[in-house]
């Protein structure tokens, strides 16, 4: 599998993207992050071609931390263009109704300052509530900032297919869609994937490891009663949407048997399966240490045989997983997802 993915407009990023949520304040619930070890992992990842970093304005402290990494990279003789920073603009739920173009502009400039760059490679735009108008206006301002050279690519995250169509038809050029896509959650397959393929929008997928659940670590383990970090809280709900802990364990057993034959780990299969799907540009893997740096190369080297894909697919056919559009369940005011989400994180920064 290629290490990189290139969009029709020539913009290129690594197929495995280093995810930054894991580094944000409040993500870890028990353990601590060793920042020096993370910086070491970043340098190693870049030297092996994993040059793209995902973050968000709401991942407290992460844009600044990427800025520190960039300074180290430049001081060591590296170039700015060696690295791609994909951040997000996630206006707080509480300000959506009053959002003005100048707020959009200020937010992007804040991200540029924190990252220490003149141009950000990608802004992925998120909108908490479709019932509140304003997302098209905000996106038009992002497009203006792109024309001014402050942003290279304007993208979306967690939008559904009808709104994505509306946005594209309003004349905004969208490069990628960041959405949850994993063996446990295939909601993009309902409509989004086909639309992305039609429009040359690349899917950037989060959750291919379900926060670490789709790895050897959880094989044969009891359903946990408490949590190490917020990713596990989030994806434990998806396991329920998928069919529960027993069905999840059945899936891990299938993947374990396969990984033995390929000489790899469950994590490699979980991500490789998604990377081989139509319209998928990249998978974003949370990086909070140097522990898993080698695994990225192993995942890209893996080619799943047709009969193994069929075996996984026939199991998944019996467990179709969460229903609806991407992020639809997460938006439901009476659902379990919204209770664990923080929708006003910019208030703090
Ligand atoms: N747009 C959105 O709404 C959204 C939502 C969620 C995430 N994201 C993005 O996607 C990124 C991924 O986050 P995620 O929460 O979905 O987590 P994830 O990538 O599914 O899981 C990350 C965890 O998996 C474990 N791991 C990583 N590589 C492994 C390997 N090769 N073998 C075994 N375990 C491995 C690590 O756990 P240990 O550190 O414990 O070893 C790591 O912390 C985020 O950082 C963020 O950039 C975006």
From TrEMBL:
Pfam families, per database record: Aldo_ket_red
Gene Ontology molecular functions: oxidoreductase activity
Name of the protein this chain belongs to: NADP-dependent oxidoreductase domain-containing protein
Residue ranges annotated for the NADP-dependent oxidoreductase domain, each copy included: 15-315
Source superkingdom: Bacteria
């Amino acid at each position: 599998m290629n290490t990189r993915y290139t969009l029709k407009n020539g913009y290129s990023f690594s197929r495995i993207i280093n995810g930054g949520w894991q580094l944000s304040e409040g993500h870890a619930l028990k353990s601590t992050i060793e920042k020096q070890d993370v910086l070491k992992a970043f340098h190693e990842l870049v030297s092996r071609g994993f040059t793209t970093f995902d973050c968000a304005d709401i991942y407290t402290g992460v844009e600044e931390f990427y800025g520190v990494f960039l300074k180290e990279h430049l001081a060591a003789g590296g170039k700015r263009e060696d690295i791609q920073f994909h951040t997000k603009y996630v206006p707080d739920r509480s300000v959506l109704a009053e959002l003005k173009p100048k707020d959009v502009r200020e937010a992007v400039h804040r991200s540029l300052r924190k990252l220490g760059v003149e141009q950000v490679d990608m802004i992925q735009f998120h909108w908490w509530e479709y019932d509140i108008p304003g997302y098209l206006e905000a996106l038009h301002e992002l497009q203006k900032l792109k024309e001014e050279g402050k942003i290279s690519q304007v993208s979306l995250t967690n939008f559904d297919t009808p709104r994505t169509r509306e946005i594209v038809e309003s004349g905004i050029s969208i490069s990628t869609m960041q959405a949850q896509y994993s063996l446990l959650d295939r909601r993009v397959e309902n409509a989004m994937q086909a639309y992305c393929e039609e429009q040359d929008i690349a899917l950037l997928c989060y959750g291919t490891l379900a926060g670490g659940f789709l790895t050897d670590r959880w094989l044969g383990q009891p359903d946990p009663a408490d949590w190490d970090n917020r990713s596990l809280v989030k994806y434990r709900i998806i396991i329920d949407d998928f069919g529960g802990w027993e069905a999840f364990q059945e899936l891990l057993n299938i993947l374990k048997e396969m990984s033995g034959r390929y000489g790899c780990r469950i994590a490699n299969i979980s991500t490789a399966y998604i990377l081989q799907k139509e319209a998928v540009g990249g998978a974003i893997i949370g990086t909070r240490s140097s522990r898993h740096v080698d695994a990225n190369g192993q995942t890209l080297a893996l080619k799943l045989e047709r009969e193994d894909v069929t075996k996984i697919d026939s199991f998944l056919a019996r467990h179709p997983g969460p229903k609806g559009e991407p992020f639809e369940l997460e938006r439901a005011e009476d659902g379990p997802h919204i209770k664990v989400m923080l929708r006003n994180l910019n208030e703090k920064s």
